[in-house]
Backbone:
């Protein structure tokens, strides 16, 4: 499948804090690959779309919240690749549609709603049966594109950072924001054993993800999907930067995000990337990334932040922020 993607730029960040910590800081700008189908959501969709095409499905059905980056990307990708799309949205319909859902509808997505109780059963055979009864032959992609096809796509993310990175295994640490950790799992599977992935859950009490990550890695390696290495690289969860939980923000985070964008020209989304970038800058000050020996052939530690996109979500968020506070 080919879209006119641009290769995600690898942008170096000139930061006094990083320099002081002896670390070179880079951002892999997955947000710039395509105006609508970008970020980690494209990588999670890619092999799901290929499987749907291979199996001759003409309709994709998937799930998400009303501001979901995945719904947005699926609507656009479906349109570009000639699939009909159905978006099953959690909760009640609210009119007028928010920017995410109006975009999805413009892209031709049929948007339907499930109350929270039914939505919770989205991964059960009973609900899938109900949806097939209602919509006919549909290729079902789980919420967020979070299945083994999704992991597979995410094993290709770090490749994108290599051609311009200088030495082959240039990055000591690769940082990524985490919801389900599907993206993290793909990244971990694609790293050299001397590299380490650092995951920043955006949910409260993110420690439960450790088990999810183990399961994803085990299931992936037990499947017949291709993996660059036979064992996963090391990884670590940093659970202190959730700012109160999913889609919760405070003034400190908003201010950080605005300043970071102004100083470095990197826009951040409030739900995922702003929290991860905030965490990284805070940990840099604590010397977290300065320990040990840099990778072979490198004189300084190199840190890669994966910009997973999600900027479309800021539209809806900024609207409600204006309503509730004076930002
Ligand atoms: C969905 C999303 C994530 C989380 O990805 P997981 O694979 O669920 O961990 C991170 N960043 C952005 C911008 C996202 O949209």
Residues:
């Amino acid at each position: 499948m080919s879209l006119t993607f641009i290769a995600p730029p690898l942008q170096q960040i000139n930061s006094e804090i990083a320099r002081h910590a002896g670390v070179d800081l880079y951002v892999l700008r997955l947000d710039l690959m395509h105006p609508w189908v970008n970020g980690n959501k494209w990588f999670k969709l890619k092999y799901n779309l290929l499987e749907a095409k291979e199996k001759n499905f003409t309709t994709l059905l998937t799930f998400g919240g009303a501001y979901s980056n995945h719904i947005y990307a699926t609507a656009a990708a479906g349109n570009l690749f000639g699939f009909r799309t159905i978006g099953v949205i959690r909760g009640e319909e609210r009119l007028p549609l928010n920017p995410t859902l109006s975009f999805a509808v413009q892209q031709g997505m049929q948007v339907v709603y499930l109350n929270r109780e039914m939505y919770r059963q989205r991964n059960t055979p009973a609900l899938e049966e109900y949806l097939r009864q209602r919509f006919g032959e549909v290729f079902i992609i789980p919420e967020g594109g979070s299945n083994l096809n999704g992991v597979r796509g995410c094993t290709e993310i770090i490749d994108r950072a290599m051609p311009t990175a200088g030495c082959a295994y240039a990055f000591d640490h690769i940082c990524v924001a985490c919801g389900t950790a599907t993206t993290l799992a793909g990244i971990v599977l694609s790293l050299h054993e001397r590299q380490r992935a650092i995951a920043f859950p955006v949910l409260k009490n993110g420690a439960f993800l450790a088990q999810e990550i183990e399961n994803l890695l085990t299931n992936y390696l037990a499947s017949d999907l291709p993996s660059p290495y036979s064992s996963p690289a090391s990884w670590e969860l940093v659970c202190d930067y959730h700012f109160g939980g999913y889609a919760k923000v405070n003034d400190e985070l908003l201010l950080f995000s605005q300043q970071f964008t102004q100083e470095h020209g990197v826009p951040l989304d409030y739900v995922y990337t702003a929290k991860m970038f905030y965490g990284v800058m805070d940990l840099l000050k604590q010397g977290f990334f300065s320990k040990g020996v840099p990778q072979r052939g490198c004189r300084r530690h190199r840190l890669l932040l994966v910009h997973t996109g999600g900027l479309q979500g800021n539209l809806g968020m900024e609207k409600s922020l204006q309503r509730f506070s004076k930002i």
Q: What stands out?
A: The two ends are 42 Å apart (CA to CA).
